[in-house]
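ugh ok so i messed up the first submission bc i forgot one of the chains. this is the corrected input, ALL of the components this time, i swear. 230 residues overall. if the numbers dont match what u have on ur side tell me asap before i send this to the collaborators (the ones from the other lab, u know who)
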Amino acid sequence: MNQSCLFCRIVRGEIPTPLIYEDEICIAFNDINPQAPVHALIIPRDHITSLAHARPQDGATLGQLMLVAARIAEDKGIAASGYRTVINTGADGGQSVFHLHVHVLGGRAFGWGPG
Amino acid sequence: MNQSCLFCRIVRGEIPTPLIYEDEICIAFNDINPQAPVHALIIPRDHITSLAHARPQDGATLGQLMLVAARIAEDKGIAASGYRTVINTGADGGQSVFHLHVHVLGGRAFGWGPG
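and heres the new structure output, hopefully the right one now
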């Protein structure tokens, strides 16, 4: 846990945030600046600064984040139409909160490249 | 394994492709249509059609794909500058090969939203 980290504060319940999913490993909520009709964030309860900071023992957590992404896509009704999952790492990636998070976006068609 | 799947054929060595990483779970190679100076694809050796087709028991594989993404970013020299990792699922996501793959892109700054 990181005292000042925004997402750690959400994990601790210090910033009331409606959760759309939670388990022992992660929580998920809607992005406050959505880039698509469906735009959810999935974050680990443990503070991992970014994908570049993930250790080998974080593999199970990373796998769970991706499985939960697919589950949320089902719950939101975009599994059949399709969706994009994104992790931004560091400055070039456009990471804005330095607590690892997976974006799940859908409900519209995405162009290629990815930003 | 899927007989006609392009990426299964690369896994089997039927389409000669320089690999930039391989282990028991996955292989990685450069995208033939790069969207950034660094653009690699990481694919599981086993055929998983898309993230929407991943089963709970595929969690370890998904985690390994993401850890390998971070490792490739290190190898390619973009870990410090930053990078974006993307999985496209289905039509809206822009998935073009129906064998799960993680895009790792870097060497330039990415805008937001993600396509």
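quick check: The mean pLDDT of chain A is 97. that seems consistent at least. Chain A touches chain B through 49 residues (CB under 8 Å).
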